């Protein structure tokens, strides 16, 4: 439990639930940023590695498989007393009621239950966001029982982090993409996130 809480704090994740039966962490609160999917996969991989390290000193090894999906949350900001800066001091959040069953928590749990110990399984929405950073392998679909009936979700296993050479080679094959532009997009989105968080307008100057 302390391991999960410590790694969540290090990666700016919110602990939704943690106990002997499992845990759920949420990244991207109160405002999502550009690389939240990559951060989620990195955190999951680090947790699996840390658990493997702990097992070297345990008589009864711990087992864990982790599932990741993209979903929505409702965030309520609480502003401090200084109305000039309007910087949120705290915030409350909850899962989007429209997505708890259909696109969020339950599907992540289904992925984690479909994996074997040591695996990180992700949905298609995550794969699209991390395809330049991680190699993935498509697996058989997982099923989860929702209020609307049995739902199937595509499963992809995280294989390894891609090397810089492999990423550059992909860009050479696809001349429509511009290598390095994700850095500019990341900066733009982080600036936007800071503006939303502070409740103030921000100007961005783009030169070329």
Q: Could you list the spans in which at least 5 consecutive residues all have pLDDT below 50?
A: none
Total count of helical runs of at least 4 residues = 6
Sheet with the most strands: spatial strand order = 3-6-8-7
Shape label: globular
Helix percentage range: 25-40%
Overall structural class, as computed from helix and strand content, comes to alpha+beta
Largest sheet properties: 4 strands, mixed
In angstroms, what is the radius of gyration?
A: 19 Å
User: Strand-residue fraction?
Assistant: 25-35%
Tally of strands: 8
Overall residue-averaged pLDDT value: 80
H and E order: HEEHEEEHEHEEHH
- State the distance separating the first and last CA atoms: 49 Å
Describe the structure.
The protein is α+β, with helices and mostly antiparallel strands and 208 residues long. Helix content is 36%, strand content 28%. The strands form three sheets. Strands 3-6-8-7 form a four-stranded mixed beta sheet. α1 packs antiparallel against α2.
């Amino acid at each position: 439990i302390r391991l999960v809480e410590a790694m969540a704090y290090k990666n700016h994740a919110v602990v939704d639930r943690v106990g002997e039966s499992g845990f759920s962490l949420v990244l991207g609160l109160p405002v999502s940023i550009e690389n939240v999917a990559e951060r989620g996969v990195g955190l999951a991989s680090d947790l699996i590695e840390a658990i493997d390290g702990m097992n070297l000193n345990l008589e009864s090894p711990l087992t864990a498989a982790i599932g990741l999906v993209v979903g929505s949350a409702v965030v309520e900001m609480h502003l401090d007393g200084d109305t000039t800066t309007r910087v949120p001091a705290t915030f409350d959040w909850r899962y989007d009621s429209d997505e708890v069953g259909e696109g969020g928590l339950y599907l992540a749990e289904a992925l984690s239950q479909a994996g074997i110990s040591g695996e990180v399984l992700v949905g298609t929405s995550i794969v699209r966001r991390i395809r330049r950073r991680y190699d993935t392998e498509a697996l058989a679909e997982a099923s989860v029982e929702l209020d609307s009936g049995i739902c199937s979700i595509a499963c992809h296993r995280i294989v390894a982090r891609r090397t810089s050479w492999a990423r550059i080679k992909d860009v050479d094959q696809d001349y429509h993409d511009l290598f390095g532009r994700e850095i500019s997009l990341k900066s733009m989105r982080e600036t936007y996130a800071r503006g939303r968080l502070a409740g103030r307008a921000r100007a961005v100057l783009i030169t070329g």
